[in-house]
TrEMBL record:
<dbReference type="InterPro" id="IPR011006">
    <property type="entry name" value="CheY-like_superfamily"/>
</dbReference>
<feature type="domain" description="HPt">
    <location>
        <begin position="771"/>
        <end position="864"/>
    </location>
</feature>
<dbReference type="InterPro" id="IPR000014">
    <property type="entry name" value="PAS"/>
</dbReference>
<feature type="domain" description="Histidine kinase">
    <location>
        <begin position="388"/>
        <end position="612"/>
    </location>
</feature>
<feature type="domain" description="PAS">
    <location>
        <begin position="246"/>
        <end position="316"/>
    </location>
</feature>
<feature type="domain" description="Response regulatory">
    <location>
        <begin position="634"/>
        <end position="753"/>
    </location>
</feature>
<dbReference type="InterPro" id="IPR036890">
    <property type="entry name" value="HATPase_C_sf"/>
</dbReference>
<keyword id="KW-0547">Nucleotide-binding</keyword>
<dbReference type="InterPro" id="IPR001789">
    <property type="entry name" value="Sig_transdc_resp-reg_receiver"/>
</dbReference>
<dbReference type="InterPro" id="IPR008207">
    <property type="entry name" value="Sig_transdc_His_kin_Hpt_dom"/>
</dbReference>
<keyword id="KW-0597">Phosphoprotein</keyword>
<keyword id="KW-0418">Kinase</keyword>
<feature type="modified residue" description="Phosphohistidine">
    <location>
        <position position="810"/>
    </location>
</feature>
<dbReference type="InterPro" id="IPR003661">
    <property type="entry name" value="HisK_dim/P_dom"/>
</dbReference>
<dbReference type="InterPro" id="IPR036097">
    <property type="entry name" value="HisK_dim/P_sf"/>
</dbReference>
<dbReference type="Pfam" id="PF08448">
    <property type="entry name" value="PAS_4"/>
</dbReference>
<dbReference type="InterPro" id="IPR036641">
    <property type="entry name" value="HPT_dom_sf"/>
</dbReference>
Length: 870
């Protein structure tokens, strides 16, 4: 519809005109408000009412303040209403006098766009400020329009580019400025991007080099400016100069180095060889260029050249030894080489390598390896010899001493006891010699390891020397000294008590050996120093014996050496004691000193610093080993030596152990698999058919988990710790050394075997209803009557009289149940049923019942008032 601008044909009535004007204001999409002189709102169009009506009271109050401020300020202020923005215009209104009309035009999108633009500009400036590259914009008058932080900092470090610079520049600096201006002018004139490199001289005189990229920047108003981004290339220029220098150095190195330096392509053809390499091969360097590597190698190495080239190409380098065959040389020359693949742009990849002639080293290493192999073979042969000797001597010695121990338990007259004492003394002496030889072997092979356990130094020293003091007194030698306890109030230390005692025993034994009756021995222990963590003590043994010649005093510490040729014949011994003692002292951190006058006597002394250990609250009591705690246990002895089996059987049976035997490893495995379950296996190591380690592995692999986990204790004549660690690592629980002491055997078995209670008195106490005397009465009855019943059951089992065994089992069943004997219910049921075709199962059940019954007989006395004495 066309619009016609003209006076209305006929004026509207006043009321209609007024209504039209009001409607016109309400239809205005922009808010319009009218206020009187006191700020009271007189009118608001619909847009204003909608704007204000959507605000909370608090927001309305805030908007009211802003509108009032806008009216007072005049002009066209920016007014924020909630999240919207308006441009206000106050106009004087018609009466009443002083009233104002406020017209609001929404410019929210404009404000947000301007803010976003400002944020983007700020972000760009922040980004430019964080870059280390100077960024600048210059106009045609060479004035800086924009500069980021790096550019400002750079200009501040100069004298001729600084904004406050007012002094005329020196000619070199003026030349720099002219260069900048010329580059800018070129970009402004041509519009082409320009990359240039040039120096910037700092105020300190240091010169930095920059690569600057300039491009034309045309502003909306048509003004032409230059945008420049600079990069500091000072380090690159230094590096380039360094590369040039190193290139020259490389040429000098190639020419003058005594090492072989060469390059070749990936096909294996030489590209260059330095003079040293040419001299090694015996050809001029020029003649070697283009020669294939395989042509200079020995025939045996030529096949490896192809593999070498493949490895270099795939892995980027290689190192190794190459045997060359120089003309005129009878023997090959060996070169240790390192090569690296080099890949560079615009040229084919090549390999650079360097090497050195190691022919003499190769020959020396071969000789050394041969000597080392021979030495290792000798050491291994010695260890094998010692192990075999130990086994071959300790095994029968175990039988001798074991049988002597059993014989000592029989009734002997005085003459027989004297013979027996001689046997045992000779056996112990032989064992002492063997131990000395083996200790020396451990020391020389570096396999002697020291323990670190807390012990009372004073008590240990006193107790170990008492037998020797008595021996000296029997010989008529006076023994005096000073006990360490007098000067050492805190004697508990960490260390190896056994080895320390061994040193003292060796020194005192030597003093007794070489001192005649009527002589004197002085033993002294003295505290020298003490800290919070350690004590330092000195031990000395002085005698009035034969003394040692001055020229022999160092030699006596050598193995198998004594001071005089007839010493062994007159005094006995192996000559190892002092050698072992010195080595032990040194391993403990000290040194063994000797002072001696021939014919007057000798003094041996050493000083040790030992870490302190806390004193225990009370010494742990040593439990006796004859309590019968092993009674009824089933033990399998796997040993090929009949005498040693007999010794073990007699020893174990004295403790009430049920002993079975096997002569070889295979038989031992079969018995563990087929017999009634054993509580423990004593396994010799050197066994026929299947050795002890293989037999242990076979047992551990049995499908029956209970049988596979039976505790196994090694019986061994090997004394090296590495051997013992090997046995334990193979699945054995402990080791017993031959010849073994009775107490060691007992305590090892007691430690390895769990000893759970064989009974449970819960049911009996429930029946007693608090009457403890009833419990005691039943236990006493069991202890009184059960031994006879068990003996009868064993007799019935041995004769396979299972009918009688069933009667006995039925008779003792109530007692077994009331005392809650553990793990016998199945055995009782089977024995009562006594199936005719189950001989093996019945025997196993009887053995289980006998074992548990005997264990209960051993343990129940402790339940009586007063314990086992009741």
């Amino acid at each position: 519809m066309p619009l016609i601008f003209a006076e209305p044909a006929a004026p509207l009535p006043a009321e209609a005109e007024l209504q039209a004007l009001r409607l016109l204001a309400d239809l205005n999409p922009h808010p319009v408000l009218r206020f009187d002189a006191q700020g009271q709102q007189l009118y608001a169009n619909q847009a204003a009412r909608q704007l204000l009506g959507g605000l909370a009271p608090a927001q309305q109050a805030l908007v009211s303040e802003r509108l009032s401020a806008a009216l007072l300020a005049g002009g066209s202020p920016l007014i924020e209403v909630g999240e919207r923005f308006f441009r206000g215009q106050a106009v004087a209104s018609v009466p009443p006098a002083g009233s104002l009309t406020l017209y609001l035009v929404e410019i929210t999108e404009q404000v947000l766009a301007e803010r976003q633009l400002a944020e983007q500009r700020s972000l760009i400036e922040q980004i430019l400020d964080t870059t280390p590259n100077p960024v600048f914009v210059r106009n045609a008058q060479a004035e800086i329009v924009f500069a980021n932080r790096a550019s400002v900092e750079l200009r501040s470090q100069t004298s001729h580019l600084h904004p406050t610079h007012a002094q005329p520049a020196t000619p070199p600096l003026a030349q720099e400025i002219a260069s900048y201006q010329a580059n800018d002018a070129h970009v402004l004139a041509t519009g082409e991007q320009l990359t240039s490199e040039g120096p910037v001289t700092l105020a300190t005189g240091e010169q930095r080099w920059f690569r600057t990229v300039r491009r034309l920047l045309v502003r909306p108003d048509g003004e032409r400016q230059v945008l420049g981004i600079s990069t500091d290339i000072t380090a690159q220029r230094v590096a380039v100069r360094g590369l040039e220098l190193r290139d020259q150095q490389y040429r000098d190195l190639m020419a003058h180095s005594q090492a072989l330096i060469f390059t070749h392509d990936l096909a294996g053809k030489l590209l260059s060889v330095n003079p040293a390499g040419a001299a090694l091969v015996g050809c001029p360097a020029e003649a070697m260029v283009g020669v294939h590597l395989a042509e200079g190698a020995l025939p045996a190495y030529r096949a490896e050249v192809a593999a070498y080239l493949q490895q270099v190409a795939t892995q980027g380098g290689h190192q190794g030894v190459m045997a060359l065959a120089p003309p005129g040389h009878e023997k090959p020359r060996y070169v240790l080489y390192h090569t690296h693949l080099v890949r560079e742009e615009s040229q084919a990849p090549y390999v650079v390598g360097y090497g050195q002639d190691i022919t003499e080293r190769i020959e020396a290493e071969r000789a050394l390896k041969q000597a080392k192999n021979a030495a290792e073979a000798a050491v291994k042969a010695r260890e094998n010899f010692l192990a075999n000797m130990s086994h071959e001597i300790r095994t029968p010695l175990n039988g001798v001493l074991g049988m002597a121990g059993q014989l000592a338990r029989t009734a002997l007259d005085s003459r027989q006891q004297e013979f027996l004492s001689t046997i045992r003394h000779a056996g112990q002496h032989l064992l002492h010699i063997i131990n000395d030889v083996l200790d020396m072997a451990k020391i020389t092979s570096g396999k002697l390891e020291l323990e670190s356990q807390p012990f009372n130094l004073c008590d240990s020293m006193y107790e170990c020397l008492q037998p020797l003091v008595a021996q000296a007194q029997e010989k008529g030698i006076e023994v005096t000294g000073t006990r360490l306890q007098k000067s050492c109030p805190q004697p508990w230390v960490l260390g190896d008590a056994y080895r320390l005692n061994q040193i003292l025993l060796n020194l005192v034994a030597n003093a007794i050996k070489f001192t005649e009756p009527g002589g004197r021995i002085v033993i002294v222990g003295q505290l020298l120093a003490e800290t919070e963590a350690t004590i330092t003590v000195r031990f000395s043994v002085a005698d009035t014996g034969i003394g040692i010649a001055y020229d022999k005093q160092e030699a006596i510490f050598d193995g198998f050496t004594q001071a005089y040729a007839d010493t062994t014949r007159r005094y006995g011994g192996t000559g190892l004691g002092l050698s072992i003692s010195r080595a032990l002292v040194e391993q403990l951190g000290g040194s063994l000193r000797l002072s001696s006058e021939p014919g007057l006597g000798s003094t041996f002394a050493f000083v040790l610093t030992l870490p302190k250990a806390p004193s225990p609250l009370a010494p742990a009591p040593t439990a006796p080993y004859d309590t019968g705690a092993l009674r009824g246990r089933r033990v399998l002895v796997v040993e090929d030596n009949e005498i040693n089996r007999t010794v073990a059987r007699l020893l174990l049976e004295d403790w009430g152990v049920v002993v079975e035997e096997a002569e070889d490893g295979r038989a031992g495995v079969d018995r563990v698999r087929d017999d009634a379950p054993y509580d423990l296996v004593l396994m010799d190591i050197q066994l026929p058919v299947l050795n002890g380690l293989d037999a242990t592995a076979a047992i551990r692999a049995l499908p029956d988990a209970e049988r596979a986990q039976v505790p196994i204790v090694a019986l061994t004549a090997n004394v090296f710790k590495s051997d013992r660690d090997h046995y334990l690592g193979a699945g054995m629980q402990a080791c017993l050394s031959k010849p073994f002491e009775e107490e060691d055997v007992y305590r090892t078995l007691l430690r390895v075997l769990p000893t759970p209670r064989s009974f449970d008195l819960t049911r009996l106490r429930q029946m007693a209803r608090g009457r403890e005397e009833f419990v005691v009465k039943i236990i006493r009855s069991f202890l009184r009557n059960m031994p006879g019943s068990l003996a009868a059951l064993r007799q019935a089992m041995d004769s396979a009289n299972w009918t009688e065994a069933a009667k006995i089992t039925h008779h003792i069943k109530p007692s077994l149940e009331s005392l809650g004997l553990v793990d016998v219910a199945d055995a009782v049921r089977l024995l009562e049923a006594a199936p005719a075709d189950s001989h093996a199962a019945l025997r196993a059940a009887a053995l289980r019942l006998l074992m548990q019954g005997e264990l209960a007989l051993a343990e129940l006395p402790h339940e009586l008032p007063g314990g086992i004495r009741s």
